[in-house]
Automatic annotation (TrEMBL), chain A:
Protein name: histidine--tRNA ligase
Keyword ATP-binding: yes
A GO CC term assigned to this protein in UniProt: mitochondrion
Family, as annotated: Belongs to the class-II aminoacyl-tRNA synthetase family.
Key words of the record: Aminoacyl-tRNA synthetase, ATP-binding, Ligase, Nucleotide-binding, Protein biosynthesis
Enzyme's top EC category: ligase
Entry annotated with the keyword Cell membrane: no
TrEMBL record, chain B:
InterPro entries tied to this protein: aa-tRNA-synth_II, aa-tRNA-synth_II/BPL/LPL, HisRS-like_core, uS15_NS1_RNA-bd_sf, WHEP-TRS_dom
GO biological process: histidyl-tRNA aminoacylation; mitochondrial translation
A GO MF label: ATP binding
Record's keyword annotation contains Protein biosynthesis: yes
CDD domains hit by this protein: HisRS-like_core
GO CC annotations, alphabetized: cytosol; mitochondrion
Residue ranges constituting the WHEP-TRS domain according to the UniProt record: 1-55
Lineage: Eukaryota, Metazoa, Chordata, Craniata, Vertebrata
Domain Aminoacyl-transfer RNA synthetases class-II family profile span(s) in chain numbering: 57-271
Protein name, UniProt field: SYHC protein
SUPFAM superfamilies documented for this protein: Class II aaRS and biotin synthetases, S15/NS1 RNA-binding domain
Record keywords, A-Z: Aminoacyl-tRNA synthetase, ATP-binding, Ligase, Nucleotide-binding, Protein biosynthesis
Originating organism: Corythaeola cristata
PROSITE patterns assigned to the protein according to its UniProt record, in alphabetical order: AA_TRNA_LIGASE_II, WHEP_TRS_2
SMART domains recorded: WHEP-TRS (SM00991)
Length: 430, 271
């Protein structure tokens, strides 16, 4: 449940997507690593907050207690701590496992790919963070998914807003997770949850509401830097200052057209400490989507400075920032589009079919195809001793093979082959 | 340091209480005190006990290793594609019942997932059984497919010999009713292309046929019931000399010395 086989057409499309993401990561100088799908249970414990119950555990079969990895970030932190690495720019494309409720129409599976790019190390502020956003922009543009928006916020600004609005520190996380729902629920419902379920005072909720419905660019940042309540909060000032720096760098990268500083962005995971961001596709009119909310986010990430320190025996910190590309969601969208357009996707890359029109020519076929393979040409033949020419040509049409190399008795005598263009039926002797 | 000593003392006190089967309320009180002391100590306690490693029999791949791996996979995939194979992918776990009864003795090496209230699952042991399941599920009668993915076996990992519990398999299979030996020949051509391409040096592909082996056993007087066990002895000829294999067949597997000698005349042949 929550898993699926990937038939050839699916895999072909998916591999193309992954290749596009990897090409971008490489362009930015990232190196690849891989980690086991299994981790010690204790490695994953205490890292995912509420989501811990979604981890797949392995049965105790008398050895170590194991679990399937939930994401690629915690394994990365473990890898850094294990190898005492302080600086690294890495990408990792692999499957992760979550015992979610797979609403499979929304593209949510229990086994799915993640494409992660992370920069670990102590550097000057916001430069690596800006590069992560540039990468998201490049990949989403490259995949031609249509218009998209990258929302950016900062955990420090959020916490600063909560403090300024009179929320007690112990309720920051609860407030955060409620604000996070603003992309799915209107403010009225969010406010109700804050007051009714999470026990915030209605005044505090109102004050929060004034802030979290704001979004914009450098102008908004400047305005908030002048805000009398926020400017008194050290954390908020720090966050706003870095946000301003970030936007200056993004302007130099030429991508601010698709970036929005959005105070309602909260992001689920506990381990974020600074900038957080999320990319969403802006719905096209001709997209067949079941529910408007199902477009969902296609990339997300942020800064997490404390995670590696949780693994290091001496608690040494390695600050990190990274992004995860939601390849499965993008894949679902593209798959739907391909289906809707009626496009036929080839599942092989074969260039030529080696065919014989008469009987007793298997040997000639085997010899020729071997020559083609040895020369690096992608070739196929039917596994029949004496196939009919029509059947062979039909096979070409069915699988999209563009050319047929035909050797019959005449060609053998003349020492040539006949190359036929399957679509146009033109033939050339060579 | 003093706090840690205090925590240890408290832990010891709790242990003693439990050993002496003291009043459960008192135990609960002391345990609560212990937990509070630990919490106040902060995350340090956890870090001392923490083991930083990958599970037994598994390993990370660093960038250098990844570069080599990528090169090897490219060579392999290029070859599979050159032969017109399609690629499929299957989930890393299968229903436990899908894998049951397919691997004989090796079934004990399968990783099972904990029963967490849903379906009973196991990690795949190879790519062939999932392939067979895929064919049956989709009612496919003809396909040429490759599948490159990791499989999982709770082996005894002799790490230096390159034997892990999590490792890649690169499979190429042709399913379907065809004229004899043509697909079989293509499989061997593929092995030849890949091994040549990777420039590993000189190599040899040994070929035989189960039907020839079984026919030979029959002709040499091996009882039908002993075919498989004799087969696995013969299989050891690449690691042991004939004398030892013969001993095993006669002494351990109860084969008559005459039959063993007759087998010996055949199995040492190659050409």
């Amino acid at each position: 449940q929550g898993t699926r086989d990937h038939p050839p057409a699916s895999v072909a499309l998916r591999d193309r997507l992954l290749a596009a993401a990897v090409a971008c990561f490489k362009r930015h100088g990232a190196a690849a690593i891989d980690t086991p799908v299994l981790e010690l249970r204790e490695t994953l414990t205490g890292k995912y907050g509420e989501d811990t119950k979604l981890i797949y555990e392995l049965q105790d079969q008398g050895g170590e207690l194991l679990a399937l990895r939930y994401d690629l970030t915690v394994p990365f932190a473990r890898y850094l701590a294990m190898n005492k690495i302080t600086h690294m720019k890495r990408y990792h494309v692999a499957k992760v496992y979550r015992r979610d409720n797979p609403a499979t129409t929304r593209g949510r599976y229990r086994e799915f790919y993640q494409c992660d790019f992370d920069i670990a190390g102590q550097f000057d502020p916001m430069i690596p963070d800006a590069e992560c956003l540039k990468i998201v922009h490049e990949i989403l543009s490259d995949l031609q998914l249509g218009d998209f928006l990258v929302k950016v916020n900062d955990r420090r600004i959020l916490n600063g807003v909560f403090a300024a609005c009179g929320v007690p520190e112990s309720q920051f996380i609860a407030a955060c997770s409620t604000v996070d729902k603003l992309d799915k629920m209107p403010w009225e419902d969010v406010k109700k949850e804050m007051v009714g379920e999470k026990g915030l005072s209605p005044e505090a909720a109102d004050r929060i509401g004034e802030y979290v419905q704001l979004h914009g660019g450098l102008d908004l940042i400047e305005r908030l830097l002048q805000d009398p309540k926020l400017s008194q909060n050290k954390l908020a000032k720090e966050g706003l200052g870095d946000m301003k720096l970030l936007f200056e760098y993004l302007t130099l990268f030429g991508i601010t057209g698709k970036i929005s500083f959005d105070l309602s962005l909260a992001r689920g995971l506990d381990y974020y400490t600074g900038v957080i961001f999320e990319a969403v596709l802006l719905q096209q009119e001709n997209d067949h989507v079941e529910e408007p909310a199902s477009v969902g986010s296609v990339a997300g990430g942020g800064r997490y400075d404390g995670l590696v320190g949780m693994f290091d025996p001496k608690g040494r910190k390695v600050p990190c920032v990274g992004v995860s590309i939601g390849i499965e969601r993008i894949f679902s969208i593209l798959e739907q589009r391909v289906k809707a357009s009626g496009q036929k996707v080839r599942t092989t890359e074969t260039q030529v079919l080696v065919a014989t029109p008469q009987k007793h020519l298997l040997a000639a076929r085997l010899k020729l195809i071997s020559e083609l393979w040895d020369a690096g040409i992608k070739a196929e033949m039917l596994y029949k001793k004496d196939p009919k020419l029509l059947k062979q040509l039909q096979y070409c049409e069915d699988t999209g093979i563009p050319l047929a190399a035909i050797i019959g008795e005449q060609e053998l005598t003349d020492g040539v082959i006949k190359l036929r263009d399957v679509a146009t039926r033109e033939e050339v002797r060579m | 340091m003093a706090e840690e000593a205090a925590v240890r003392a408290q832990a010891e006190a709790v242990r003693r209480l439990k050993q002496d089967k003291a009043d459960p309320d008192e135990i609960a009180k002391e345990v609560a005190k212990l937990l509070e002391m630990k919490a106040q100590l902060g995350g340090d306690e956890g870090k001392h006990k923490f083991v930083l490693k990958t599970p037994k029999g598994t390993r990370d791949y660093n960038p250098k290793q990844m570069a080599i791996r990528e090169r090897v996979f490219n060579a392999i995939i290029t070859c599979f594609k050159r032969h017109g194979a399609e690629v499929i992918d299957t989930p890393v776990f299968e229903l436990k019942e899908t894998l049951t009864g397919k691997y004989g003795e090796d079934s004990k090496l399968i990783y099972d997932l904990k029963d967490q209230g849903g379906e009973l699952l196991s990690l795949r042991y190879d790519l062939t059984v999932p392939f067979a399941r895929y064919l049956a599920m989709n009612k496919i009668t003809n396909i040429k497919r490759y599948h490159i993915a990791k499989v999982y076996r709770r082996d005894n990992p002799a790490m230096t010999r390159g034997r892990y519990r999590e490792f890649y398999q690169c499979d190429f299979d042709i399913a379907g009713q065809f004229d004899p030996m043509i697909p079989d020949a293509e499989c061997l051509k593929i092995v030849h292309e890949i091994l040549s391409d990777l420039q590993l040096g000189d190599f040899l592909v040994k070929v035989n046929d189960r039907r020839i082996l079984d026919g030979m056993f029959a002709v040499c007087g091996v009882p039908d019931s002993k075919f498989r066990t004799i087969c696995s002895s013969v299989d050891k000829l690449d690691k042991m000399p004939w004398e030892e294999v013969r001993s095993e067949m006669v002494e351990e597997k109860g084969l008559s010395p005459e039959a063993a000698d007759r087998i010996g005349e055949y199995v040492q042949l190659h050409g």
